[in-house]
Amino acid sequence: MQKSPKLFLIVFLLVAAFAGTASAQVDPLSPRFFYRDFQGRMRSTGVIHHYWHHRIAHPLAHVDPRINPKLMRAATIAEERANPHSKGRCWQYVKEALLNAGAVNSYPKTAYAAEAGGELVHSYGFTRLSVRDPYSAPVGSVLVYSGGRAGHVEIRTRDGFASDYHSKNACYYHLIAAYAKLSS
Questions:
Q1: Fewer Cβ close by (within 10 Å): the C or N end of the chain?
Q2: Domain check: are 26 and 98 in the same one?
Q3: Residue 172 maps to a domain
């Protein structure tokens, strides 16, 4: 039986082509993810293996029975309405979550997030908690930070923090204080 040189050449080229693509996909120095876009064209993007330089492990927030359950509802509302990224409207989103949960009886009037603590204490019966670490704040507590032009405010959720966006990590600004409304 005589073998065709053309068939041998075709098989050799196919094996070489598949070996080249397989090594490009397995290359540990530049791993790529391949996909087809909506127009059917083949695209690729890099694979991110490490987002943080070191692993961040924070425990889940604890539920303090002294805190008003409406604040825990506000934390749930804030988490449900949060965006993937900040829109620069943290205090507006927290105000709406507090109002919709019934934790406050009217829409807070202050414009800046750094002023939120004073208004919550004087107008709505909140108490300043003795918390210095945002990760040790109980679920539903309102955390006020200084920094930037207007500061930042967020609500502690079970697994992170929510304002106009949700994050597992606390804000990097300096924590002014944590506030909560205690049950009667």
A1: N
A2: no
A3: yes
